[in-house]
Amino acid sequence: MSKTLFEKIWDKHVVKTIADGPSVLYIDKHFIHEVTSPQAFKGLEQRGLKVFRPKQVVATADHNVPTINQHLPIKEELSRIQVQTLKENCEKFGIELYGLGHPYQGIVHVIGPELGITQPGMTVVCGDSHTSTHGAFGTIAFGIGTSEVEMVLATQCLLQTKPKLMRINVEGKLNKAVVSKDIILYIISQISASGATGYAVEYAGSAIRSLSMEARMTICNMSIEMGARCGMIAPDEITFEYMKGRAFAPKGAKWDEAVAYWKNLQSDPGARFDHEINIDAADIEPMITYGTNPGMGIGVTGHVPNLSEIDEKEKPSFEKSLNYMGLEPGIDIKGKKVDYVFIGSCTNSRIEDLRMVANFVKGKQKASDVEVWIVPGSRQVEKQAREEGIDKILEDAGFMLRQPGCSACLGMNEDKIPAGKYCISTSNRNFEGRQGPNARTFLASPLTAAAAAITGKVADVRELI
């Protein structure tokens, strides 16, 4: 019987199926951070339980950490308490922690892949919605709530209902200056922020297969932004080449054995999906959002929709969104003034993203009235950027390479966008207040964000290359 990639991994990890109910799913790797773990550890303590398999848990500090002067005590009290609590819990329960100062510290969804911890065929969870990032390696990876974090810590298993299956095929050659962030923003703009609710999504097609691993991670990262339970891409030679030699990847004979298994992790010919979507890569241009959910996206040469283009039942939320953003229906998005540019987050903070930005801004100067935050996703990314001289290129352009963390992706640390200010961000969410109370966010690719940093406004990067 033909199986999808999802079904092959799911079936291998089902411990027990409950009649007319969920399945007990075994979890290979559990990532934790300082925000969603404290209550879970407290629950274990109250029940007198230990962490069942601490070697399969990986901890790091990312959401609450500052991105400058990390050697100093954290200023924000709540952030300081959460980071300290994670340290204490990891010591108490015997879990490896990549905390501040550790060479492996970074955003949880950046360090897993770069260290070779994330491997094809795994089930991966974390108390963070963007765990779908790891699906780029051919894993079933999804975010869980705090009570579920406790369940996995206690049992290494999770109760899960099997989702429906969707395949999104992106075929053809990408246009100039169109990158993976544009692909996923385009997909979400086409199917809406709820268009994949209840589905596990597999991305396929020649345009997807042509992407690097870091680009694939960007796409899978934002699967949750269209409501999907997870997103995944079948592993191939690009996957294996990326993984080979990484710190926790298999070595020697075990590597050969692993690759032999990973090569079978493809959807079989004739495998059935509940829904399929086909997209022509040629239709995608550099994208940007204008509203307060990631589905409100347009090409940079497009205009904010007129009221006549909006479904009647969607008009109240559409008008509320534009009111928050301070935009009028029908206006061109290109040329809109911006105040801040944030390049970072678990979506776009890897070395490839920083190289992309550095190549574009080399020899240019940032606009004098724009503040730019460049935040690497991990200590390893920061180290590599400095070794390659990327920090110097950014410095010459008027930018500064900060220290790793989630930063201005979310208003949970010191890096907040001031009220009323416009920020072009390479992160994944543009909800009201996401980057700080009353901050206004445009989501875009690293290239489009860099173009805004140079020009001080929303620009078509194709005109500047």
Structure description:
- With 465 residues, the protein is an alpha/beta fold.
- It has helices spanning 5-13, 38-47, 77-93, 108-114, 146-155, 180-191, 206-209, 213-221, 237-243, 253-262, 315-325, 351-361, 379-387, 390-396, 446-455; strands spanning 14-17, 23-26, 29-32, 57-60, 96-98, 123-126, 140-143, 157-160, 164-171, 199-204, 230-232, 275-280, 287-289, 297-299, 340-343, 371-374, 422-425, 440-443.
- The protein folds into 3 domains: 5-160, 2-Layer Sandwich (Aconitase, domain 3); 164-283, 3-Layer(aba) Sandwich (Aconitase, Domain 2); 287-463, 2-Layer Sandwich (Aconitase, domain 3).
- It contains 15 helices and 18 strands.
- Helix 6 (180-191) packs parallel to helix 8, helix 12 runs parallel beside helix 14 (390-396) and helix 12 (351-361) runs parallel beside helix 15.
- The longest helix has 17 residues, at 77-93.
- The termini are far apart.
- The relative contact order is 0.13.
- The mean pLDDT is 97.
Keywords:
465 residues, Aconitase, domain 3, 3 domains, five-stranded parallel beta sheet, 15 helices, globular
Which structural class do the helices and strands define? alpha/beta
What count of domains describes the coordinates? 3
What is the CATH third-level topology name of the largest domain?
Aconitase, domain 3
Strand content: 15-25%
CATH class of the largest domain: Alpha Beta
* Strand segment count: 18
Residue-averaged pLDDT, rounded? 97
Unreliable stretches: none
Question: Strand order, biggest sheet?
Answer: 5-4-3-6-7
State the helicity in percent bands: 25-40%
Distance between termini? 49 Å
